[in-house]
Design a protein that fits this description.
Blueprint lengths: L4 H6 L16 E6 L8 H7 L3 E8 L3 E2 L3 H11 L2 E7 L7 H10 L14 E3 L14 H19 L4 E4 L1 H8 L11 E4 L17 E5 L7 E5 L3 H9 L1
Parallel strand pairs: 1-2, 2-4, 4-5, 5-6, 6-7, 7-8
Antiparallel strand pairs: 1-9, 2-3, 8-9
Helix pairs in contact: 4-5
């Protein structure tokens, strides 16, 4: 979920801040992809982290080369873990990408340590911020993804985005607030404005720098609440 330099400039609600792990209430965690290189899962757990979200796929033809090692490392360290999918709404349907994600690391099992998969929907890596889609077309694409994922896994996926992107590209749609938990990216001292009719963020990505690798996250609740999210 690394945002490009252009994306960071475009996202006015992502402001620079030092890591805030010692000052924020909630359960610490982090998210990673192979771009982060070495990740120290055991030290992360020892420091208080209890969950990690791991990049699994993009589009319908890319699997993160670090996924399996990251997933195994997280499991061995005792972390609750799950996968995420970086969306490319301009290349194929939402349902096709949800199916690919589910089959390549994004599945869910009722084992108490697996989070439902997460849809990472944000600024296009290049070109048009909204992938050339209108707001209504983007909402339709996301609907296709979340419905297919729910059909395959029995769980509604988490949705990761920023307030700026969600407002710009979906028209601040509230179509998903009743089912899919929000993972909100905002690098600052607070989560800021909550978009899309969600009453609160379930997870807040507060920094793109985490001591033991990846980006810093906080679950908005207790450890028992986090476990309930994993078990459904």
């Amino acid at each position: 979920m690394k945002l490009s330099t252009i994306s960071l400039i475009a996202a006015a609600d992502l402001v620079s801040a030092a890591p805030l792990e010692k000052r924020i209430a909630g359960v610490p965690g982090f998210d990673i992809s192979h771009y982060q290189g070495t990740v120290d899962f055991e030290s992360a757990y020892s420091s208080g982290a209890r969950f990690v979200i791991i990049k699994a796929t993009e589009g319908t033809d890319y699997t993160d080369p670090g996924f399996s090692d990251h997933y195994d490392g997280a499991t061995a360290a005792g972390l609750i873990r799950g996968g995420y999918h970086f969306a490319h709404p301009d290349t194929s349907t939402g349902s096709a990408q949800a199916s690919y994600f589910f089959k390549n690391g994004g599945g869910w099992s009722d084992d108490g340590i697996t989070l439902p998969g997460m849809l990472d929907i944000e600024y296009a890596p290049s070109g048009d911020t909204c992938y050339g889609l209108s707001q209504s077309a983007m909402v339709s694409w996301i609907t296709s993804f979340v419905n297919e994922y729910q059909s395959l896994s029995g769980r509604w996926p988490l949705i990761y985005s920023t307030n700026d992107w969600w407002t710009t590209c979906t028209g601040n749609s509230d179509a998903f607030s009743g089912n899919s938990p929000l993972v909100l990216a905002r690098y600052g001292s607070s989560p800021g404005t909550i978009p899309g009719g969600w009453g609160y963020q379930t997870i807040w990505q507060n920094s793109d720098s985490y001591t033991y690798g990846g980006d810093s996250d906080f679950f908005n609740g207790s450890l028992d609440n986090l476990k309930k999210l994993a078990t459904g």
